[in-house]
Write a structure and sequence with these properties.
This protein is of the alpha/beta class. It has 15 helices and 16 strands. Strands 7, 8, 9, 10, 11, 12, 13, 14 and 16 form a 9-stranded mixed sheet that branches. It has a 7-stranded parallel sheet with strand order 3-2-1-4-5-6-15, sandwiched between helices. Helix 3 packs across helix 4.
């Protein structure tokens, strides 16, 4: 098994490289800066290959012989499509760590036929927010049987964001541009259905904003649902106003090990069905960036070792949700589905 990692010298990319090395999986590190790639590969024995996203020929060559590609190089709306094209051309499965809702829909619209024809799986949004929220939503929908409305709320606290994450955030798309699934399609909408949300393990309600969360783009593809929207817990006034590139450039590349350990994230899902039936799902974890690396590496391992149907797939279409969540439980992620 050989996995190509593009964006391998970035903050999340280096965590993915470390996870591949920890699990003894062969990797090829791909990027434009040889010195940074050599630093990322230090002590692993991994091969490095130079390629740039605006040079399709170099990308195609970089992925040659790879069984799968992990893409950690955002912003994905600007940089993702050439990488997917190169992975498909190399007949390699593809996984990325995007959280960009609009981009996820574009991947389904653009690459479904090409991926199916090539016999490969393309699975976007395999990160701490996209993968677990898709899996728990599927399990909630499975328990509910019939779902009129599905709401996913995500709450990050006690941590910090990497420069790459901040650069990938488009405040207009993340907040006002958030999509809601309704009447068989996705569209922007007005006010959120909730102004506050009761998350597990806390007594008080938490203020929430409507937000362009990844599961809203993926879950309706495998859970029959009338309406679905996403909420983000906490205050994000700084992000809504936008952060100047110079300010982002002056920040640390990402949280240090202690900050990562302290960072907590919670996914809370509520499904409403006929007769007022309520089914809830909860996922809680720490170190979102570290868990993203674990999720992305396990995803490509399963695609290569176990196989998957070809095409662009939501996480729950590519993998058995309960099995994947049980795997994450071994890494300190807690989850449950309850009725009432």
């Amino acid at each position: 098994m050989k996995i190509a990692v593009i964006g391998a010298s970035g903050f999340t990319g280096r965590l993915v490289v470390a996870e591949l090395a920890r699990r003894g999986i062969e990797a090829v590190l791909v990027g434009r800066n040889a010195e940074r790639l050599r630093a990322a590969a230090d002590g692993t024995g991994f091969e490095i290959r130079i390629a740039t996203i605006d040079d399709q020929i170099s990308l195609d060559a970089a992925f040659a012989g790879a069984d799968a590609v992990i893409n950690t190089a955002g912003p994905f709306a600007r940089l993702g499509a050439p990488v997917i094209r190169a992975a498909i051309a190399a007949a390699a499965h593809y996984v990325d760590t995007t959280g960009e809702q609009h981009y996820i829909n574009e991947v389904f619209d653009t690459f479904t036929d090409a991926a199916a024809d090539a016999g490969v799986a393309v699975v976007p949004a395999m990160a701490d927010d996209g993968g677990p929220s898709d899996f728990i939503s599927h399990l909630v929908g499975q328990t509910a049987g019939s779902v009129d409305s599905l709401t996913v709320a995500l709450w990050y606290r006690d941590g910090s964001l990497s420069r790459g994450t901040l650069r990938s955030l488009d405040p207009d798309l993340l907040f006002d541009g958030a999509l809601r699934y309704e009447n068989g399609g996705w569209a922007t909408y007005g006010a959120a259905s909730h102004a506050a949300w009761r998350f597990p393990s806390v007594d008080e309600f938490v203020g929430v904003s409507k937000a362009a969360l990844p599961p809203v783009a993926t879950v309706p593809r495998h859970v029959p649902v009338g309406r679905m929207e996403g909420l983000l817990g906490g205050s994000f006034d700084v992000l809504k106003d936008g952060i100047a590139p110079a300010v982002i450039d002056a920040l640390p590349e990402g949280p240090d090990d202690e900050q990562r350990r302290q960072g907590r994230w919670t996914i809370s899902v509520m499904a409403s069905g006929p007769g007022g039936r309520i089914v809830r799902g909860e996922v809680e974890g720490t170190d979102g960036y570290g868990k993203t690396a674990v999720i992305a590496v396990e995803a490509v391992r399963r695609l290569v070792a176990d196989g998957a149907k070809a095409g662009v797939l939501a996480p729950s279409q590519a993998f058995a949700p309960e099995s994947f969540m049980d795997f994450l439980s071994e890494h300190g992620v807690r989850w449950r589905v309850t009725e009432g």
